[in-house]
Design brief:
33% of the residues lie in helices and 24% in strands. By secondary structure, it is an alpha+beta fold.
Length: 295
């Protein structure tokens, strides 16, 4: 997430005749990613839903951004606690707890101090602070362990995607394709591609009434030299170049695609077997070979 937003910049081509429903497309930038929205709707009516979505994404930035000093997350990391947290903030942290439990600790947002480390020595020291089990969470208070800090980029885009999809459905639009860093396709089959930073397009998938999230561990490097997706369980190099996960919701897909970057095939299979609903993990090895598991 960054302190700069261009919400779904309006395309003139999308504002053609308002007399009947047609695919409406918007593109822009929010929550640190290129975003897009496609829905079958009357263009004039669609603008009312789009206006509501602006407030949803603005709320997500205000809660979860690391780059806004007055965000709820920045306040929590600065103080070590957050009193009377917003219900949406509690909801996302509750999803973090569920993902932590589901992956046996492979998903852990307390890795933020490693992001801030300027050297390998600092990163090794920061590893002592990792542990979601030390985070206290109630509706009245969020309490971090001593010197802990959270990063929510590993799940917040999926969470925002789900919020947007629910808002669109509430407004009566079922045939939508939402991309807020992660994708959700509703009402119509879509064919999103899985891309890898090195091997480019490696797979085309079928997506309907489901989400897909993709993580590529080495697409960016930290100042300390490691991959930007951090292994909370030992600091090993990523086992997969790219991981995409399909799931019934984007929040879970986002968390699992992050966690699986450092997970073995056996771990991934065990996690998918425990999860509710059909899930698919598409993984790209460093040599470009694609391995798919559906449970």
């Amino acid at each position: 997430m960054i302190n700069r937003r261009r919400f779904l910049a309006i395309s003139a081509a999308a504002l053609a005749s308002p007399s009947h429903a047609q695919p409406i497309r918007r593109r822009g930038y929010a929550m640190g990613a290129e975003i897009s929205l496609t829905l079958d709707a009357d263009p004039v009516e669609a603008e009312h839903a789009i206006a509501a979505l602006r407030s949803i994404l603005e709320e997500c930035e205000a809660l979860f951004s690391l780059y806004r000093p007055n965000s709820a997350l920045s306040e929590l990391n600065r103080k070590g606690y957050l009193k009377s947290p917003d219900p949406a903030f509690v909801s996302l942290l509750t999803a973090c707890s569920a993902a932590y439990d589901l992956t046996n600790g492979r998903f852990d947002p307390t890795v933020q101090p490693i992001w801030l480390a300027a050297s390998e020595n600092e990163a090794q020291h920061a590893r002592r602070l990792i542990g979601w089990n030390r985070v206290g969470l109630t509706k009245e208070l969020v309490q971090l362990g001593p010197d802990q800090a959270l990063i929510l980029n590993v799940i917040a885009q999926g969470f925002a995607t789900d919020l947007v999809v629910r808002a669109l459905r509430k407004a009566g639009w079922e045939k939508v394709l939402v991309n807020i860093g992660e994708y959700y396709a509703s009402g119509r089959q879509r064919l999103p591609g899985v891309t890898d930073p090195v091997h480019r397009l490696v797979e085309v998938t079928h997506l309907k009434d489901r989400a897909i999230a993709t993580s590529s561990a080495d697409v960016m490097r930290l100042r300390s030299g490691g991959a930007h997706i951090i292994d909370p369980m030992g600091g090993n190099a990523p086992l997969w170049s790219t991981v995409s996960v399909q799931a019934p919701d984007a929040t879970t897909a986002d968390a699992l695609s992050t966690a699986f970057c450092h997970a073995s095939e056996a771990e991934i299979a065990a996690t998918l077997a425990q999860a509710a609903g059909e899930r698919i993990a598409i993984r790209v090895r460093p040599n470009g070979k694609v391995v798919t598991l559906q449970v």
